[in-house]
Amino acid sequence: MDKPRLSIADLADIVWRKSSHSGSGGGDCLEVADGVPGVVGVRDSKDSTGPALCFSPDEWRVFLKRVKAGDFD
């Protein structure tokens, strides 16, 4: 099954939320958009017009599981 192809323009009007795990100093800020069916968007909050990564919900769940497990520490 092919993944949906989205551009940053497709994500322009959706609501982004800042990760609760982003640093409070403003340097490590990640925003997530999970209101698009079949896609979880991720971007750097310091560059809201820059590129966004798009994951399937399953890919996002696996990523979060690995982050919580400390696989990227």
UniProtKB/TrEMBL annotation:
InterPro entries: DUF397 (IPR007278). It comes from Spongiactinospora rosea. This is DUF397 domain-containing protein. Residues 15-68 form the DUF397 domain.
